[in-house]
Amino acid sequence: MAVLVTGGAGYIGSHMVWALIDAGEEVVVLDRLSTGFRWAVAPEARFYEGDIADRALLSAIFAENRIDAIVHFAGSIIVPESVADPLSYYENNTVKSRALIAAAVEAKVPHFVFSSTAAVYGTPESAEPVTETAALRPESPYGTSKLMTEIMLRDTAAAHDFTYTALRYFNVAGADPRGRTGQSTAGATHLIKVASQAALGKRAGMDVYGTDYPTPDGTCVRDYIHVTDLADAHLKALQRMRAGGGSIVANCGYGRGFSVLEVLDQVKAVSGRDFPVNIAGRRPGDAVSIVANPAVAMREFGWTPKHDDLAFIVRTALDWEDHLGKRNML
Ligand SMILES: O=c1ccn([C@@H]2O[C@H](COP(=O)(O)OP(=O)(O)O[C@H]3O[C@H](CO)[C@H](O)[C@H](O)[C@H]3O)[C@@H](O)[C@H]2O)c(=O)[nH]1
């Protein structure tokens, strides 16, 4: 059987494709290449260029491949962009996911792994690591668009012979330790990516969005997870469903938070480079502090983090950024 990876030319998707291939799986990728890159897709995967809401293309993919699982990454991922242009986020993340889920049900594809997000929680009530049963109060259209898809999956699983896993990602960073892929998106806004670019002189400096938050140093706190550990969580979630496990929602993070300033110190230390940091105002849609309780993923699919070390995350991000620079890519 084969696994269909939507968004497999993107940052997390391209790592997932490698994780599946490393595990001996047959992989089919569907990506419209709006932000991803054809070269990011492992050559062993079968590639289709197109949209996840293109029913004719999906029918062809299901007819040409024996797919028993979909791992769905395709979507828009930038919190402030979603605040500025909410309807694009509801279109790309909710409406198009609905089309993909409908096609999966029609084709009787039994397993679905969905890339959800910690943004579904908004800012949790307490500073304790958040569990999956916490209140769902997204603070951005991005978070709401993903939550709506989770709800569609829940209701679809109740009505059809269909099992899903929704993985709520915390802050994904780093790159394949073997250097095969990394975060390559043009105009990326993610903290570790931006700081790596500043450290390597690809940008003159960077902004810190807000130092007046109610956190120890006044900057926002996040739980940074290495992208390879995240891909491994998907693989384990898939194996669990194939073994008969039911639908489930699970956090993907390490259970400890770092502030923006702590991350910047780490990037400076690991790279050995200093760079200008401008203290700017708060960015719309930012949650104050959010850290995962990953107990469900660890217990239910036996997920064990292997790279839960901020210095390693930063090292692999810097190595990938350097690799892109040496090849005049981005
Ligand atoms: O140049 C920058 C970039 C980011 N930040 C700050 O760094 C923190 C992390 O920001 P990111 O943009 O790296 O990530 P977000 O927490 O906004 O969002 C990420 O995590 C979310 C879940 O928490 C979603 O999954 C989302 O897709 C993903 O981008 C925030 O406080 C942000 O304000 C800066 O200060 N300067």
Could you give a short description of this structure?
The protein is an alpha/beta fold and about 325 residues long.
- CATH fold-level topology of the largest domain: Rossmann fold
Approximate helicity band: 25-40%
Q: Count the strands?
A: 14
Identify the strand order in the major beta sheet. Answer: 3-2-1-4-5-6-11
Q: Given the C-alpha coordinates, what overall shape results?
A: globular
CATH class categorisation of the largest domain: Alpha Beta
The arrangement of helices and strands along the chain is EHEEHEHHEHEEHEEEHEEHEEHH
Could you report the average pLDDT, rounded to the nearest whole number? 96
CATH architecture call of the largest domain: 3-Layer(aba) Sandwich
Unique ligands: galactose-uridine-5'-diphosphate
Distance between the termini: 36 Å
Query: Which regions contain 5 or more consecutive residues with pLDDT less than 50?
Result: none
Structural class: alpha/beta
The CATH homologous superfamily of the largest domain corresponds to: NAD(P)-binding Rossmann-like Domain
What does the main sheet amount to?
A: 7 strands, parallel
Query: Given the structure, what is the number of helices?
Result: 10
Strand content: 15-25%
Pathway: Carbohydrate metabolism; galactose metabolism
Protein name: UDP-glucose 4-epimerase
EC number: 5.1.3.2
Domain NAD-dependent epimerase/dehydratase: 3-253
